Amino acid sequence: VNILVVDDDPDLRDTIAELLEADGHQAVRAADGEQALDLLGGDPGKLDLVLLDLRMPGVDGWQVAERVGNRVPIVVITAESTIAMPPNAVGQLKKPFTMADLREVVRLGRHT
Amino acid sequence: MQLSLILSRLRVPPPPKITRLQAYASAVVIPLVTLAIQHELLPLVHLVPFILFFLAVFLVSWLGGRGPGFVAIGLSAVLADYHFLPPSNTFSLDPRSLLLITLFCVVSTIVNLLTAAAVEAYAEAQRAVRFRDDFLSIAGHELRTPLATLRLQVEALTQLADAQPGSVPRKHVDRAQRSVDRLIRLVDELLDVSRIRAGRLQLNFEACDLSDIARTVVEQMHDTAAHAGSQIELVAPDRVPGKWDRARLEHVVSNLLGNAIKFGTKKPIEMRVSLDAGTARLSVTDHGIGIADEDQPHIFGRFEQVRSPRQGAGLGLGLWIARSIVDAHGGIIRVESKLGAGATFTAELPLDAASAAPSSSSEPAAV
Known about the structure:
The structure holds two protein chains of two kinds. Chain A has helices at about 10-20, 35-40, 60-70, 100-110; strands spanning about 1-5, 25-30, 50-55, 75-80, 90-95.
């Protein structure tokens, strides 16, 4: 599965990406919303899932989600459980999540 | 500093928001109204000619602060002199009148300054509380990102230690894992506190099972208990179904069990779940250090942690959060204990919390 990991925190982004790679997925990394939109604009057909942090400086997760629409399933990564979710998000990873949570949303995202 | 602390304790409610113009208008209108009222009460006026004007100054000062307060003092002095100091309806400037006016000005200036200071001190205290609550919330959320990384990395290390024994000593990984778990609980507590304080504790009532919750928590805390040298015995019927917020009740139960482990001095711990007459009951009993009679009324308060030599670390918020959650379910939580002989904490919950819970879940009244 090709997964785009969008998070402005480098350690969390790399951790998620490496764990996904260890599970045999392809992980593409984006450090902010702008990079994410560049990557998605190129050829979103190649991506199967976006893991998207909501709070990012500049272009934030909500804006990315709005631009992506329904072309690629989106799972949001968030620290707040009460936060407003983008309407097209298919799932939510609440920090601090476990590997099992991560695998679960990847499975869920793939079948959406 | 001392004075402002005392003044803030007076909890003078904040005045309605008004413009400067309105504040000065009130400084004119209120003494005039006072004049009219006092005219109706002439017999009283002969005793204390300024009596109602103190009230007027207080009111203006509360509404508009010091400046309008001084305007009201000046106007009141003139009005009272003209109308009430004998001889009436002239400006009396004899020594007795001047003395009375001076006295009025001095006392009402003190009233004015203290009132304005009390309003400000209380508003300042409330701002500080709001700042602290906001800060707790922001800090709690900020901490979650590095915590997420830490949790995943420690999990990866655990897997490595399992897959290649000897590569990473298991005991180090386990210690790291326990610390991560504790950090997560502490951050959750901070966030719960800021939510409860802000009245934003939202419960998601769903069909769930108290026996199942108890089993889950005992299972989750098995390692921690074993590490602390405590045995947990769970006595629970097959099912105690009800409508509650499952995640929050797990938090309550794990808090009670965590305390039992912490203060249980390695003696066995019993958890009991029962159901009778529409009430679900969960109790946790330890046989550890216990709680002195005089401390028992305080332990459900915020930031209360009874000091003792065997005291472990903690924020002292757990029981306050537990009580807030149980309260929000329309239930009660209580303790029975003897110093040195352990403690039993009991939570009682109505079976359908959704209909029994108080409509707004906010901070429980001060203890």
